[in-house]
Each structure stands twice: as structure tokens, then as C-alpha cells.
Amino acid sequence: MMTAVKAYYNGTTFIPLQRYNFKPSQQVLIVVDENDDIETPASKFLKLSWAGDENADEILETINSSRANSTRFEAENALFD
Q: Does this model's pTM top 0.85?
């Protein structure tokens, strides 16, 4: 049986994008997608960089303070009644 596991190459090694329990010295078959024009969500994420000087706690505080809570699931909404 063969299982396909998506991965990316970081210039040195292949990094799986999905969880898979590889065994030590397990042989794999690598199929290369020659179409470099396709940008996956993972490749977009890996290209991101942070230019700010905030630390992780400050970033999380900014995210939490800018959230707008939805009222559609409140008791008086009766969405699920």
C-alpha cells in the first residue's frame, strides 16, 4: 500500500505538511511537481516575515483587542430554537 504525504523542500530536507508516522530508514518515493506557479497556503505562510518590533504577547493582545464578538449565538437570537 502507498500513502501520499504532501511536503516541501527547504533546501536541505523534505518537510511533511501532513502528519505521518514515518519509520526509521523507511523508503519513500518522491514525486516532484514541476509547476512552480501554484502557491499553496503553506508556501504563502512560509514566505511571511514579521517586520515589527512587537513580541508575541503584544501581537496576541493586539489580535484579542481588535476582535468583534458575534451576537448570533446569544440566547435571545433563537438561531437554534
A: no
